Amino acid sequence: MHLRTSLRVLALAVLATTPVFAQQTKAKRVAAPAADAPTAAPAAPAAAPTTIAPGAPIPRDELTPEQKASMKEADRMRGEKARIDAELALADAKRTEELAPLNAEVARLTTERSLRLAKASAEAAALEDERAKLERQAALEAARSGARLTERSNKIRELEAEAKQLQLEAANTIARLSNEIQRFQKEDEARKIASKAKPKYLKDPLVDGVLYISDRRISFNGAVTEQLADYVCTRISFYNNQSSEFPIFIVVDNSPGGSVAAGYQIQKAMAASKAPVHVVVKGFAASMTAVICTLAERSYCYPNTILLHHQASNVVRGNMTVLKEQIDFTNQWFDRLATPVAKKMGITLPEFVKQMYANDSSGDWQAFGDKAKELKWVDNVIERIEETAILDLLPVPVAPPAIMPMPLPQPPTRTEISGVTSRVDDKGRPYFELPALANPFDAWWLYDPQGLYRAR
Fold this sequence. Notes:
CATH architecture of the domain at 198-455: Alpha-Beta Complex
CATH topology of the domain at 198-455: 2-enoyl-CoA Hydratase, Chain A, domain 1
Low-confidence stretches: 30-53, 394-414
Distance between the termini: 106 Å
Strand content: 5-15%
Largest sheet: 7 strands, mixed
Helix content: 40-55%
CATH superfamily of the domain at 198-455: 2-enoyl-CoA Hydratase, Chain A, domain 1
CATH class of the domain at 198-455: Alpha Beta
Number of strands: 15
Structural class: alpha/beta
């Protein structure tokens, strides 16, 4: 940049001195006499100076010192200019030579960039095609999944309807069998009345596959409530005070379970009894009643009797703290009462719960009597029961000579015993109204798939 500025200054100096030099040369030529003019003749006054053709060379010896100096300076400046031009050309050549690799690198990078852009565009186009393909596949798979889900939902609804139908058929079968059993029992009663039979008191009541039930018998039907617990526990104490030698029979026709606290009272009364307490299930026992049956000292059922175990449930209400306490106590109730059942089965409580849901998706694990025996829910499966104490249609107890006869109160009906009331709702549907739980930390452990039992 400085070199170019210097050259411009020198060029301006040359241009400035050139007119001066030309004027001096012209003046000198006008003043000098012609070579072939006579010397003697005086010079005539010139009206105008003689002009010399431009571009004519002037000898060096005819120049004035100032002109010679100017020419010398001009020659020097021309030489300097030529040198500077040469240096500039050399610098341009060097710069061109130095920039050549950079220009080549720029060209190479530009080419590579173009190639990469082209490649990236091609890859982007391929990815866009792949994305569109994946979106189409995802949409197709979503449609297929929706179709499969709909099909499975329909299948589940069909299975639920079929299960409800089977439950209704099972309930009808149980009712029919119960009616048959009752008819056979009444026939046995009639025969025993005719034959003047007496109750059989046996320490081991199971003889050749036949279970003999004496008049030390407690009816256990319907929902487990505090009233039913009081009824059962009172009679266990009564029969213990009468005699601790012969077994006491708790006979269950059908019971869906009920209050956890009430069932626990019955279980503790059975465990504290000096006389052995045997539980007999004829039709159906679920939830809390199934726990009572499983934990009895001895238990019996028919091959087609149904026993059902599941987790405890609760109808909670109140603020969040109360809800948490209710749920916590319900879990503790279940742990305390179901752990002995799992222990009798030879498994842990978590394994017991896992098997509940493995056998039925709702967690309601039901089994017929023969299967229940394999699971250790019941001790004996029998084909026949003889109610030896039913000697008449009147509740008059008959005791053997070895036992002091004691009067027994007339047992009330199932609704009166348990405190459950039969009602009809505003839509005309019958239901059973459960009594209120007096224990604030009590819970209902009851199997009621049809919603027949409603808490008060």
